[in-house]
Specification:
The chain has seven helices and 18 strands. The chain is α+β, with helices and mostly antiparallel strands and about 375 residues long. It has a five-stranded antiparallel β-sheet, covered by helices on one side. Strand 8 and strand 9 form a beta hairpin. Helix 1 packs across helix 7. It is globular and about 80 Å long. Bound molecules: flavin mononucleotide. The site of flavin mononucleotide (FMN) has 21 residues, from helix 7.
Amino acid sequence: MSFNTFGHLFRVTTFGESHGVALGCVVDGCPPRIPLTAQDIQAELDRRRPGQSRFTTQRQEPDAVKILSGVFRDEDSGQDVTTGTPIALLIENVDQRSKDYSAIRDKYRPGHAGYTYDVKYGLHDYRGGGRASARETAARVAAGAIARKVVPGLVVRGALVQMGPHRIDRANWDWDEVARNPFFCPDAKAAKFFEDYLDGVRKAGSSIGAVIEIVAEGVPAGLGAPVYAKLDAELAGALMGINAVKGVEIGDGFAAASLSGEDNADEMRVGNDGRPRFLSNHAGGILGGIATGQPVVARFAVKPTSSILAPRKTVTRHGEEADVVTTGRHDPCVGIRAVPVGEAMVACVIADHYLRHRGQVGDSAAWPFSKPKA
Ligand SMILES: Cc1cc2nc3c(=O)[nH]c(=O)nc-3n(C[C@H](O)[C@H](O)[C@H](O)COP(=O)(O)O)c2cc1C
């Protein structure tokens, strides 16, 4: 059975294929009276859009979004606001080139989803990967633009922190740098290095993986639903559900296994504002599946693009052995455009948990609690 909806109260259903007429989503459960324009959504889509540098696929898709429903001009404020009804968003595909794929009509691309879709559904949409194509992630980014507005004060940012074996120098981290280079890289020096490095990969007809880090600030303490909808578990599921993602970490992630208890546990003090102040953030802003109020930090590993020019051994859908070479237009490092997609998934999960928390608990408990009378 297919499953194209995620979220519980902030619920997103996406539709569309790589070479279909259009793709899009329906966002159900968005609260009413939130200011929202197509430009708010377009700004996020423009960050994911293909063809913006030589380091991403040259498919030219404007990814122009249309809001079909769920937004209304409020006469009192003069603003376009959400109505509380389903918000339907449409993005037309305008630059499909199905003939690029005719040579692989019956052949599976190793590392792509052709074989598994075929063995499950008995159909092979060879044109750009059909529903398995990352064209679908445009709809996630559009939904994420709405999610960002649901939680007051929420800021979700992402950055590419590793390409192939090359990690950035975290001492050089500058969020402003992310918008200044084609890699979403916060380290200007590393970004310069990635230019030559990825040019080499691209010209060799190969591809390379990457690691992306997402940081969400302004996540209210208390979000998360133990024990089967822990915030970290749902973030991991959402990020793992992005095409080509093979691993997710929260906070120190796998590195926590090599730390001692003293090094790993985030010690606490009372801050000047009377709220708890953590002296470190190894936990990535989540304890017991519930947000601590610290920044929520997640990382995910993206595999190298499977569509490469080097000949690969494969089989056809008729059971013959074959070699396959994938031409067409592909990202040499899909991790780059995965940055806004990761941000969107994190924003959607946090918006969903914000509404679920409000539904069950309302305002969080007023910490600190008074001492019982002796
Ligand atoms: C932003 C983005 C762009 C992608 N572009 C391509 C691409 O150009 N060519 C390709 O073969 N795979 C691309 N992928 C990856 C495939 O969609 C993915 O590997 C495929 O659906 C198989 O799924 P899996 O890798 O999650 O198992 C991209 C992924 C993302 C996140």
